[in-house]
Amino acid sequence: MREMSTSPWTRPHDWAEVVLGVVAVLTPLWMETDTAAMWTLIVLGALVAVDGLVSLAMPGLVYGEGIQIVLGALLFISPWVIGYSGMMGAAWSSWIIGGLTMIAGATALPVANAVHDRTAGQH
């Protein structure tokens, strides 16, 4: 199981990040948003998805998981910072997706560290 999770394109944590990013990008299609909320969800969601794809392709990139945690935190606080906490659908989407992104990034961090440590001597 450990070998599968350290191979490119097989880590479930990173696939979860990609799915969460895509859901955030698509959220304005089914939730009421204003312009600021829409672009916040689209931009942060796209960044989460792209970083998840990069982490899938290169499982030893430790900083990619750290970036996921930061992006998840930004998505989580965005309803208050950007001012769309009154739009309950968009706000709850941000809180849930942001929280799950932080959890996925934190869960994938030890795996990325292990892969990085194992491949560090091969360069």
Automatic annotation (TrEMBL):
Keyword Transmembrane: yes
Transmembrane region(s): 37-57, 69-86, 92-115
Keywords: Membrane, Transmembrane, Transmembrane helix
Domain of life: Bacteria
UniProt domain SPW repeat-containing integral membrane: residue ranges: 13-106
InterPro entries membership: SPW
Protein name per the record: SPW repeat-containing integral membrane domain-containing protein
